[in-house]
Design goal:
heterodimer, A: mainly alpha, 13 helices, B: mainly alpha, 75% helix
């Protein structure tokens, strides 16, 4: 490929600049977290005496063990169930092609455009009525419902694109839909299910609005919800706030680094398919 | 002879009924597969949506009795300056959350494709994508610091001799909304870049070859081949980011809370304030319904555009 020298330099400079702009906020966060607790660190400045102890302090005051447990509880309660029922629905709509499949799909896809704020007020009263306000169930149950549009849409795309020979062969052998699903299609759908599971886990972990409105106690919330509360309490102690933010970011960053390829492809395909 | 034929017909009829029964059983089973998903979706999404619509016709403080007020709440949403400004702010955010990331993402993706096909391209893809996976709340906290008076942005401006324009960017009436917008650009640029880049790899290389034989530079190639070939990906990018803009909540709540004054009050924030702080559930619900309709009105034409004439 022939690309002019000038363009090569300008293009690479642009990329490096954009990467710097992406990374610098994290660097600033780290250097701020290392300043003495209670001080007001400026921009990026390496402290004379880095206070690594701030992380220990933030871990304690933010109740990090409880928070991690709470977020994990929510993820474990939401993801397997949401994954299973959206795979089942995607199977019925995309592969069994039950009567009304088109309408069902349209109904679920409509949910993709729905802003959470459009339903948050009634969800509050609904949770109060069900007696689950201020418990983790108030986050878990609506979250499963809110994941259905994307989950069903995503799994349907997988099932609709499968060659029908696999299913026909099994039908001839007299397999019921239930056998067909568990014995043949779930094992075949492992890859899209894994991507969907990772996405749902990240989204549950990062969910803020539901946690803010439906659960007052930060120790019963998601990580993002707890972070919001933490900011409220420690807005004045910048280094501590920054250290706490880093601790809360670490799990998501770890998942991203470990499953980078799946996360990126999943997020992209999720928006392109359809 | 006739008896044998009748018997054969009867057998065939029986087979057909059995076949129909099997199909019907299969359909019933199929619906059972959809049922759990549909149940969760109906109870925790569709039902609240219907309730939002119902609430929007009442004046209600969330505790006492509700009074039917017809379309009064909608009239307020579309006429009260504070609420109209809220909707307007939502659309102003579209510039930052959607138009700039998509435009800049197109340029960045095409640069990666032309000059950074190797390692640099892979690394920049991952790095630019990073802000997409962290909680938006964290993005809000990080940038709240960066844009504050002693923050990195002012530090950088001072170091290049622009000390005069430094300020608390999120606290200034004129700059608060664009400052929130910058956070959105930071979060969404990587998503758009990577999505558009994926589309670019599918463009027929022969198109570029012939353009290059004609000696076309970056800009003509970008305008004549890249952008038109990516219509579908651009539409998807616009759809996702416009929803993110109109329904913005986390970033705004954490970085400005809607302030100063009403300067960054977007619909999501206003719905939260009205419903849970000011206890005007009816008014909040009318605003929510208007938001849902606005999102649909903007998104639906885009879908047609993306299908267009392929």
């Amino acid at each position: 490929m022939r690309v002019g020298r000038g363009e090569l330099v300008a293009g690479r400079a642009l990329l490096l600049a954009l990467m710097a702009i992406t990374i610098l906020p994290f660097v600033s966060l780290l250097t701020s977290a290392l300043h003495p607790s209670g001080s007001a660190p400026a921009g990026i400045s390496w402290p004379a005496d880095p206070q690594w102890g701030n992380f220990v302090e933030a871990f304690k005051v933010a109740n990090m063990t409880t928070l991690l447990a709470s977020s994990l509880w929510i993820v474990v309660a939401v993801v397997p169930l949401a994954l299973l029922i959206s795979t089942m629905a995607g199977f019925a709509i995309g592969l069994l092609r039950i009567p009304g499949a088109r309408w069902l799909l349209l109904l679920f896809v409509f949910g993709l455009t729905l802003p959470f704020e459009g339903i948050i007020t009634p969800l509050y009263f609904l949770a109060r009525q069900l007696g689950i306000l201020n418990t983790r169930l108030a986050i878990v149950l609506p979250l499963i419902g809110l994941f259905m549009p994307f989950g069903v849409f995503w799994m349907r795309a997988h099932f609709a694109n499968l060659p029908s020979e696999i299913t026909e062969a099994a039908r001839v052998d007299g397999a019921s839909s239930w056998d067909l699903f568990w014995r043949i299609h779930v094992p075949l759908a492992r890859a899209p299910m894994a991507s969907l599971g990772i996405l749902m886990a990240i989204w549950a972990w990062n969910q803020f609005l539901l946690a803010l409105v439906l659960v007052e106690d930060p120790t019963q919330r998601t990580m993002a919800g707890a972070l919001g509360a933490f900011q409220g309490h420690y807005a004045t102690d910048i280094p501590l706030l920054c250290a706490g933010t880093i601790l809360i970011l670490l799990p998501t960053l770890a998942v991203f680094v470990l499953f980078q390829r799946q996360v990126i492809t999943a997020l992209l395909q999720g928006s392109v398919k359809g | 002879v006739t008896d044998a034929r009748l018997a054969r017909l009867g057998r065939r009829e029986g087979q057909r009924t059995a076949w129909f029964q099997a199909v019907r059983r299969r359909h019933v089973a199929g619906w059972l597969f959809v049922l759990p998903a549909l149940l969760f979706y109906a109870v925790f999404v569709l039902q609240p949506l219907a309730l939002t619509i119902e609430y929007s016709f009442y004046r209600w403080d969330g505790v006492g009795p509700a009074t039917w007020v017809g379309l009064t709440n909608y009239a307020a949403v579309l006429s009260e300056p504070k609420l109209v400004e809220t909707l307007f702010n939502g659309f102003r955010l579209v510039i930052f959350f959607s138009l700039i990331p998509v435009g800049l993402g197109l340029v960045t993706a095409s640069v990666i494709q032309r000059v950074a096909r190797g390692r640099l391209g892979t690394v920049s893809r991952s790095v630019l994508f990073l802000p997409q996976v962290i909680p938006l709340v964290a993005a809000g906290i990080i940038w709240g610091r960066l844009l504050s008076l002693p923050g990195l942005v002012n530090q950088a401006l001072s170091s290049v001799g622009l000390g005069d324009i430094t300020r608390a960017w999120l606290g200034d009436f004129d700059t608060a909304l664009p400052a929130v917008g910058i956070i959105g650009i930071w979060v969404l640029l990587g998503f758009c870049t990577v999505l558009l880049l994926t589309g670019m790899t599918k463009i027929d290389a022969a198109l570029y070859e012939s353009a290059r034989l004609d000696g076309a530079g970056w800009w003509p190639e970008f305008r004549a081949i890249t952008v038109p070939s990516l219509r579908y990906e651009i539409a998807v990018c616009l759809t996702v980011t416009i929803i993110a803009a109109l329904a913005a909540f986390d970033i705004v709540y954490v970085s400005t809370g809607g302030g100063p004054g009403n300067a960054t009050a977007v619909p999501g924030i206003q719905i939260y304030i009205l419903a849970f702080l000011e206890r005007q559930v009816g008014l909040a619900s009318a605003l929510a319904v208007v938001l849902v309709i606005l999102v649909l009105l903007v998104i639906l034409p885009l879908q047609r555009l993306s299908r267009g004439d392929d």
